[in-house]
Specification:
Elements: H1 19-24, H2 28-33, H3 39-52, H4 59-68, H5 72-76, H6 79-96, E1 99-102, E2 105-108, H7 109-118
Antiparallel strand pairs: 1-2
Helix pairs in contact: 3-7, 4-7
């Protein structure tokens, strides 16, 4: 895996964030960004996503858009449920061709939105 792509393994590494960071996360946006492996790297692409998709430029809109694509159990569940649902959603985005192109990267829509939450 290239270093540039490493942060896109958003929900894979269980050690990506300390458990207390997820537990202390307040609202939906904070819970979602707590599972991002490398928020500073994600933020760079996230700024490009926000510039390209102005309707989703606010954190609340991004979080709502992501959560709307997840099963209800993942929206209110623990960190593992959320991570698993995000992984499944990323795979489904690619399978459906729901991708975005940002700065030479091809990301699933969900990856783009998560990166934008970090911006």
């Amino acid at each position: 895996m290239t270093p540039r792509r490493r942060f896109l393994v958003l929900a894979v590494g269980a050690a990506a964030m300390p458990r207390f960071a997820f537990a202390e996360a307040g609202g939906p946006a904070e819970r979602l960004t707590a599972i991002v492996r490398d928020p500073p790297s994600a933020a760079a692409l996230g700024r490009a996503y926000r510039a390209q998709f102005l309707r989703e430029a606010r954190g609340e809109a991004l979080a709502a858009a992501i959560l709307a694509t997840l099963p209800p159990s993942a929206r209110t569940g623990d960190e593992h449920a959320l991570r698993g649902a995000i992984r499944a959603r990323v795979r489904a985005d690619f399978a459906a061709g729901d991708v975005v192109r940002l700065d030479g990267w091809t990301l699933s829509r969900t990856e783009g939105r998560l990166a934008a939450l970090c911006a």
